[in-house]
């Protein structure tokens, strides 16, 4: 296989990892005002992702770096054209990270409430805008003959882009609620199970709409992997329904696992619907960025491949070890004990 095509799928897998892992971080953050009824429950919720959220976020850094090295034309068009949207995502991620570190620095309810809302907004905004960005990449955006994006931020806020954005927001939220139910006990766990049931119907509706709408868009242009997009989209639909069922019977581990499978296969469905393009042009198909005209030299891709073979397994082992170390539930009794020790 040509290395450019291989790296198209490697970058896709990196984004799958990011959306699955940071996706439940976003969901946990968005759940804070709905499940955090007092300071103990709020700390219980935040502590579920406390040891891992920054590690999960590194996946997008690696994905962006690989995109820059493997597909410089794609990177240049994407980051210049989507500049404002990506800047908003970056600011939201910074606000969320700062909030995790600073909310406990003062024993003042107002101080903590401000940072709690920064966590909520810093989780919801990226969850929405990542979907908007991916939706526009799949649908196509105005690009000129020099591969320059000729639209604005408002261009990205089109019906399909916004629909995909709401879909990712709901999927990440549901994914995060499943994670809270898996990692907590007591009232927070019960409330998380109940919230997941309420989120199930709108999530299924928007996800189904995204899958069908994407297939219609991909079917209107050259899409040699449309069959694979349909297959992975079907798996995502089944996994989503199975996650809802698992939550209903209070099998938190199964619900979270099927939720992760839903996001992974949904992203792969969008990615394979895009192939062989990396950024279709809605202005003229001749101006579209493809895997071949956007990729780096063969030497660059060869060096990157060897680096990936050596270092990616080490990263996966380290992340797996981290999750194993912090695998236990964050219990209410543990938080209350820590609170009493402070006071």
TrEMBL record:
Keywords: Cell membrane, Electron transport, Heme, Iron, Membrane, Metal-binding, Oxidoreductase, Transmembrane, Transmembrane helix, Transport. GO terms for molecular function: electron transfer activity; metal ion binding; oxidoreductase activity, acting on diphenols and related substances as donors, oxygen as acceptor. The keyword NADP does not apply. It is found in: Cell membrane. The chain crosses the membrane at residues 6-32, 77-95, 115-140, 160-179, 199-218, 224-246, 253-279, 299-318. The keyword Plastid does not apply. Its EC number is 1.10.3.-. It is an enzyme of class 1 (oxidoreductase). Its main location: membrane. InterPro entries: Cyt-d_oxidase_su2. It is a multi-pass membrane protein. GO terms for cellular component: cytochrome complex; plasma membrane. One of its GO terms (biological process) is aerobic electron transport chain. It comes from the Bacteria. Belongs to the cytochrome ubiquinol oxidase subunit 2 family. This is Cytochrome d ubiquinol oxidase subunit II.
């Amino acid at each position: 296989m040509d290395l450019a095509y291989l790296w198209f799928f490697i970058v896709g897998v990196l984004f799958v990892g990011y959306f699955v892992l940071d996706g439940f971080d976003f969901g946990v953050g968005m759940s804070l005002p709905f499940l955090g009824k007092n300071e103990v429950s709020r700390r219980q919720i935040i502590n579920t992702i406390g040891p891992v959220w920054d590690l999960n976020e590194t996946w997008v850094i690696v994905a962006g770096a690989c995109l820059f090295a493997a597909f410089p034309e794609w990177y240049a068009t994407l980051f210049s054209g989507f500049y404002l949207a990506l800047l908003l995502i970056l600011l939201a991620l910074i606000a969320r990270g700062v909030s995790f570190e600073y909310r406990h620095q003062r024993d003042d309810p107002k101080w903590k409430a401000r940072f709690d809302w920064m966590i909520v907004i810093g989780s919801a905004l990226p969850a929405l805008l990542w979907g908007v960005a991916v939706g526009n990449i799949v649908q196509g955006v105005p690009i000129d003959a020099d591969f320059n994006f000729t639209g604005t931020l408002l261009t990205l806020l089109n019906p399909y882009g916004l629909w995909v954005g709401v879909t990712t927001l709901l999927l990440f939220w549901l994914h995060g609620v499943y994670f809270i139910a898996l990692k907590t006990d007591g009232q927070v766990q019960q409330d998380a199970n109940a919230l997941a049931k309420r989120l199930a119907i709108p999530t299924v509706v928007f996800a189904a709409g995204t899958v069908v709408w994407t297939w219609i868009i991909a079917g209107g242009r050259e899409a040699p992997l449309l069959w694979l997009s349909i297959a992975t989209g079907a798996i995502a639909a089944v996994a989503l329904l199975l996650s809802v069922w698992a939550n209903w019977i209070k099998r938190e581990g199964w619900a979270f696992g099927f939720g992760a499978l839903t996001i992974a296969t949904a992203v792969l469905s969008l990615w394979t619907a895009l192939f062989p393009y990396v950024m279709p042009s809605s202005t003229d198909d001749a101006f579209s960025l493809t895997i071949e005209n956007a990729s780096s030299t063969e030497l660059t891709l060869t060096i990157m491949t060897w680096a990936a073979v050596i270092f990616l397994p080490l990263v996966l082992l380290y992340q797996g070890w981290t999750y194993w170390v912090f695998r236990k539930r964050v219990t209410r009794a543990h938080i209350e004990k820590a609170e009493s020790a402070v006071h």
